[in-house]
Specification:
Blueprint (H helix, E strand, L loop, with lengths): L3 H10 L8 H10 E6 L4 E3 L7 E5 L4 E5 L2 E6 L4 E2 L1 H6 L6 E4 L3 E7 H10 L1 H22 L1
Antiparallel strand pairs: 1-8, 2-7, 3-6, 3-8, 4-5, 4-7
Helix pairs in contact: 1-2, 2-4
């Protein structure tokens, strides 16, 4: 298990959380759970209902849609927020390439996190806009 100070430092190194105050980072830490996922296991599955937001702490995962790999994500990547924000099924499957560590935040914690941090909410919107733009480019 990662020590609290190390988790806060890891959160601070992630662009999504960079503008957050120490207090906001503490609130994020309080609503997140560290999980370890073995290689080859799915973190989320396309079509499943979204129940959590996931921040990748180390290693790498693949993202696939309709069985086709579309991206590889590394430390600091986050996913799952779209399904929580619009209450819809997951639009992709994310699979661990190697054993990975992630911070998982459930729906209630995610809402609390957004309510408590305007910086985070803004960064999340920017991140979503970039991701949607990338998806649109891939389709053309």
């Amino acid at each position: 298990m990662i020590k609290r100070n190390d988790r806060l430092a890891a959160f601070r190194s992630i662009a999504l959380f960079r503008a957050c105050s120490d207090e906001e980072l503490g609130q994020i830490d309080a609503v997140s759970d560290e999980v370890r996922i073995e290689a080859g296991r799915d973190l989320i599955r396309q079509g499943d209902l979204g129940r959590e937001f996931i921040v990748l702490v180390d290693r790498a995962v693949t993202v696939s849609r309709d069985g086709e790999e579309v991206a590889t994500l590394g430390p600091g990547a986050h996913f799952g927020e779209l399904a929580l924000l619009v209450d819809q099924p997951r639009n992709a499957t994310v699979t661990a390439i190697t054993p990975v560590t992630a911070q998982v935040i459930d729906r209630r914690g995610f809402q609390s996190m957004l309510d408590g941090s305007p910086h985070l909410t803004k960064n999340l919107l920017v991140s979503l806009a970039r991701r949607l733009s990338e998806i649109e480019e891939q389709q053309h």
